Amino acid sequence: MNYRHAFHAGNFGDCMKHALLVALLRALLRKPAPLFVLDTHAGAGHYDLTAEPAQRTNEAADGIFRLLHDVPPALDDYMTAVRGLGLYPGSPALTRSLLREDDRQACCEAHPEDYAALRGLFRHDRQVSVHQRDAWQALKALLPPSQKRGLVLIDPPYEDPREFSRAASGLTLAHARFPTGVLAAWYPVKHRAPVRAFFDALSLRDVITAELLLREPLDPSRLNGCGLAIVNPPYRFEREAQVILDALLERLGDREPGEAALVMRLADE
Ligand SMILES: C[S@@+](CC[C@H](N)C(=O)[O-])C[C@H]1O[C@@H](n2cnc3c(N)ncnc32)[C@H](O)[C@@H]1O
Questions:
Q1: H-helix or E-strand spanning residue 184
Q2: How many A from CA of 134 to the centre of ligand 1?
Q3: What ligand 1 atom has the least distance to the C-alpha of 40?
Q4: How confident is the chain (269 residues) per 10-residue block, as mean pLDDT?
Q5: Is any atom of ligand 1 closer than 6 Å to the C-beta of 43?
Q6: Is the CB–ligand 1 distance for residue 90 below 6 Å?
């Protein structure tokens, strides 16, 4: 396991994932029934963007640091959460900040150091369970939850090209075990072929994808864009996702050819 999220925290992919995560959680929180949130690839929980790993790559300069000033209304909720949390929040800290007292959160992380950090972050928190276990196994072990409503976030590092097919199988398994849950999987867009194969492998109904492309995905050595595939999206989420992506593109894009903010519905079946 080479991937460490501390080197990438705050990049544009993180901003897209987290802005949509906040909106998905807000939609679920509109109803009073308790929620269960499973974060299968949780990372360290939060990150110091002034520390060496983040400074070395400086990826946050083209991500979260571009969003700090003159926050557009579509990103206000997300940025208020980020600002309120001290250290830059990863998906676990961001999720936790929105939960009510009857909601529950489970986080899985395989890397020993990131797991230790995550465990430390939530050690006094009865609402959050932290597991050092394989994400794909966790989908079997931790689903279905006793709560009828909730969200599963699948956020693999994609260092191994097989992660696309694992993400498709993971969504399918999560849907079989938790059919009422909102299920979201982040994916990189370096070039189109693996993304098309990922969509083809998703034979689920009611799936949308939200993509932020910074440029035409022609050079497979670069992260040209990223997306979130969402199974069972909340009512009218497509419109909301489009507004969020448009605001992100306005700040994070450099007007390169092919940049786009796209919300699409995958054909049912
Ligand atoms: C992209 S990062 C997660 C970032 C986090 N979701 C966030 O938004 O703040 C992916 C994480 O998955 C972990 N990981 C990789 N393979 C895993 C597996 N099979 N099971 C559990 N965790 C895994 C990595 O150690 C890494 O911390």
A1: strand 182-189
A2: 10
A3: 21
A4: 93 98 98 98 98 96 95 97 95 98 98 98 98 97 97 97 96 98 98 96 95 96 97 97 98 97 85
A5: yes
A6: yes
